[in-house]
Amino acid sequence: MPQTTIKMALVSALEDLSKGDFEKFCHQLLDRRQEPRVKRNKVEDKNRLQITDVLVSHFTEEGALRVAVEILKQIGCSEEAQTLETLAGGQSSKPGPSDGEIIFLNMGHVRFALLVFECHIKLYALPKLHSMGFMKKLYSISDYFS
Which residues make Cβ contacts (< 8 Å) with residue 58, sequence separation at least 6? Predict the structure, then answer.
């Protein structure tokens, strides 16, 4: 049997919700504090198909699946959340770095990121942008990558 796409699984999960649960889902979607946030006019008076499109356009398919499962659990629809994960082939439970995956970082990239962060902090700490010490520090970035 072919695997259901994430978008089809989202539509199916939202269609299985009662009217009250669907309203709770939309309310929680609007009330999310994490970015990217969904604007009220994208959700109000929308049907289940339109809400699915909003989820996918804002979060990508994998992100929409993760967000939908999270919201379903928050509103007490754990069974629907489990069904959604099953329909989508369990794609939301792929192991991430915290689940034992090893990530190799290029140390040059790490040094660059730390230097950019340091410069960002100093930029806001200095009263004037034309400070010679700050400009020398910016020009010294090229020394790390030579």
Answer: 36, 38, 42, 64
